[in-house]
Specification:
2 helices; 4 strands; elongated
Length: 103
Amino acid sequence: MHTRPIQLSDVIYNAAEQSFEALVCVYDDNSVRKYACSIDAPITMSYAEAAEGLSKQAIRRHEARGGMYSEVSRHLPVQRAGRKSLEALRWLEAIVHPGKRAA
């Protein structure tokens, strides 16, 4: 089993559902997947136990690649093809002096 960094955000206890809930981020290679997790537990459960249960649920869902999640991929700049960079000074000279041809 591969260990992945995990971050829990906004851990709350939902008294109506009698469960701990959190948004759990799983960092994996070039992406971050966020899972809305919930575990049934009494309010007397310690935070450490709740965090462990929420983390395990997120890892299971991440490894199964199933269910709903949000993913943020790292942005890789796309290189533009066939277009020269804009030279603002030459462009302005062509506007101010229309008879002078900018190369």
